[in-house]
């Protein structure tokens, strides 16, 4: 994903391109007259912001990375967490 240089995430771009290919030369009926759409509308502008790569990177920017050992954990004044009591 870091090497991806487009504004839209790869899977979403693939879906948008597939839907554009399926739509082809779309014909819409309006008031009895046919409107033949041959292009001109930038479909990528209609993609929601949640599918942009900038939003993706903002979402996963603050991840908590795993630690190798328990001794690397921060010490606290609270008692240790214990599992719930088990009964049959």
Shape: elongated
Provide the gyration radius in Å.
25 Å
Number of strands: 2
Mind summarizing the main beta sheet?
A: 2 strands, antiparallel
Strand content: 5-15%
Number of helices: 2
Which range best describes the helical content: under 10%, 10-25%, 25-40%, 40-55%, 55-70% or over 70%?
10-25%
Distance between the termini: 49 Å
What ranges have pLDDT less than 50 throughout 5 or more consecutive residues?
A: none
Structural class: alpha+beta
Largest beta sheet: strand ordering: 1-2
Order of helices and strands: HEEH
Mean pLDDT: 80
Written account of the structure:
By secondary structure, the chain is α+β, with helices and mostly antiparallel strands. 24% of the residues lie in helices and 9% in strands. It has helices at residues 10-23, 53-59, and strands at 27-30, 33-36. Strands 1-2 form a two-stranded antiparallel ribbon. The model has no long low-confidence stretch (mean pLDDT 80).
Brief overview:
The chain is α+β, with helices and mostly antiparallel strands. Helix content is 24%, strand content 9%.
Topology (SSEs and partners):
Layout: H1 10-23, E1 27-30, E2 33-36, H2 53-59
Antiparallel strand pairs: 1-2
């Amino acid at each position: 994903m870091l090497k991806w240089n487009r504004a839209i995430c790869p899977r979403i771009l693939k879906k948008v391109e597939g839907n554009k290919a399926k739509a082809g030369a779309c014909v819409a009926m309006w008031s009895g007259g046919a409107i033949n759409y041959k292009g001109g509308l930038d479909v990528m502008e209609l993609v929601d912001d949640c599918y942009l790569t900038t939003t993706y990177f903002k979402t996963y920017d603050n991840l908590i990375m795993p630690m190798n050992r328990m001794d690397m954990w921060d010490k606290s004044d609270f008692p240790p967490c214990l599992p719930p009591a088990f009964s049959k």
